[in-house]
Amino acid sequence: MNILLIGGGGREHALAWKLSQSPRLSKLYCAPGNAGIAALAERVPLKATDLDALVAFAQTHDIGLAVVAPDDPLALGLVDKLEAAGVPAFGPTGAAAQIESSKVFSKGLMAKYGIPTAAWQAFDDPVAAVAYVRAQGAPIVVKADGLALGKGVVVAQTVPEAEAAVRAMMEDKRFKEAGARVVIEDCMTGPEVTVLAFTDGKTVVPMLSSRDHKRALDGDQGPNTGGMGAICPAPGYTPELAQVCMETIFGPTIRAMTAEGRPFKGVLYFGLMLTPDGPKVVEYNARFGDPEAQALLMLLDSDLLELMLAIREERLAAADVRWRSGASCCVVLASGGYPESYQTGYPITGLPADTETLTVFHAGTALSDSGQLVTNGGRVLGVTARADTLDEAIDRAYAAAEPIAFTGRRLRRDIGRTHP
Ligand code: GLY
Fold first, then answer.
1. Which of 8, 19, 197, 244 is least surrounded, with the fewest CB atoms within 10 Å of its CB?
2. Which residue's C-alpha comes closest to atom 4 of ligand 1?
3. Which tens digits make up the pLDDT trace of 13-54?
4. For the segment 245-260, what is each residue's pLDDT rounded down to a tens digit?
5. Is the separation of the CB atoms in 138 and 130 below 8 Å?
C-alpha cells in the first residue's frame, strides 16, 4: 500500500519511521517532509495546507492511505476533501478537528457533557474580557480561540499581564482571526499529563501516558514553545487515575463528539491536569502531539499502519494495541532564540547512528546545496531513546544529544526531571 504522510516536523519523522516498519507499506511519500524523513520517504514539495494539490497528488499516485498529522490541514478539512475524492484518509474531519481549532467549541462541549475542566467564559469583546479579568483577579489563563502555533495560551500571574494578553490577542490581532475570540479560565494547579488515545468514534484506546515540557527554559521557566522534550510514561499516572480519566473524560468526550454529529476518528490528545479535585482537561488536540509522538512511537509495539486502517474502518475494538515495556525520553535540540526569532542554515555535526533503542528524529532540518545537513527551523532535532527505566532513557537521550553541534544549539537539561 502506498502512503502519503502530510507534515514535516519531528512528529512526522517519528510517524514515517514507525510506518516504515509495516510489512504492508509499499511506498511512503511525505509532503513536505524534512531532511531526516527523506531517508524513509520520497519527499513531495507541497505544503501541508495546499489541500487541492495534495488531493490531486494522492489521486495520481495510487495512495491507499493519506495520514494527515498537523493541526492546520486537519482544521481546514483535508481529511474530508481526500475522502470525498476517493482517497482513504487517517485523521478527524474538519468538524471533529474543531475540538482543537476552537477553544470556545471545546469548552462548550465540556460544559454541555459534564467533562471536568477549569471554570471559564468566552468573549468576543475586549472591554468585557478585561472587565472579567479584573473581577476574577490573577493568576488567570487567557486562550486565543483558534490555532496559534502553540503560542495562544497565556498563564498570567498578574492582572496587568492578563489584560496585556487580551489586548494583544483581541485588539492588536497578534494571532489574526484566531484571537478575535478568547476564552478566559481559572488557573488550575497540579502535575500535567498527556494521554493520547486511538479512537474510531466508537471505541477509545488510550496510549501510554506521556509528559511534554512546554517552557523554553529549565525549571519550567521562559516562554511556551511547541515542546522542548517528552517522556513516556508519565510518573504518577497510576492505573487508578487512568480508570478515573476513562470514566470521566475519555469515554464521555468520544460519546459527546458522536452525539454532536462530529464523530472523532484518529488520535485524540488529552492534555490533563491532575488537580486536587481530580483530573481535568487543560486542552484537546486533534492529532499526535509533538514531541510526545516521538517518545510514544518508540514504545509502540503494534503495526501503526494496521491501527490506522482499523480506525478508519471503525474496527478498533478488535485491533491489537501493544506496547513495549520500559520508558522513553525525547530531548529537543532547538535553534538559539526559539520560540522567538532565530537564524537557520547552520551546519549540524555529531549525529549518532540510530540503533534499535535510539533514534534522532529530525524536525527543522534541510540539506544545503552542497549536501550538508543544516538547521531549518526552531525545533531542529528530537534525540529519542528507550530503556528499561525512565532514568536510563533520560541518560541515554542526553548522552546521545551531547556531541550533536550547531551554532546556537539550545536544549533543556531537565527533561523528565521536573513535573510541569
Ligand atoms: N506538545 C504539544 C502539542 O503537540 O500540541
1. 244
2. 289
3. 999 999 999 999 999 999 999 999 999 999 999 999 999 999
4. 999 999 999 999 999 9
5. no
Per-residue pLDDT reduced to its tens digit, 79-137: 999 999 999 999 999 999 999 999 999 999 999 999 999 999 999 999 999 999 999 99
Residue 184 half-sphere exposure toward CB, CA atoms < 13 A: 30
Pocket residue to mutate for ligand 1, from 103, 192, 212, 379, most atoms within 8 A of Cβ: 212
Q: Which candidate, 213, 212, 190, places its Cα nearest to that of 273? A: 190
The pTM assigned to this predicted structure is 0.97
Determine whether 221 is exposed, middle or buried from the number of CB atoms within 10 Å of its CB (0-12, 13-18, 19+).
exposed
Please tell me the distance between residue 86's alpha carbon and the centre of ligand 1 in angstroms: 30
Contacts of 110 (CB under 8 A, 6+ apart): 116, 117, 281
* Residue with CA nearest ligand 1 atom 3: 289
Examine residue 263 and say whether the peptide bond preceding it is cis (omega within 30 degrees of 0). Answer: no
Which residue ranges have their beta carbon within 6 Å of ligand 1? 150, 212, 227, 285, 289-290, 292
| Cβ-based burial of 369 (10 A; exposed 0-12, middle 13-18, buried ≥19) | exposed
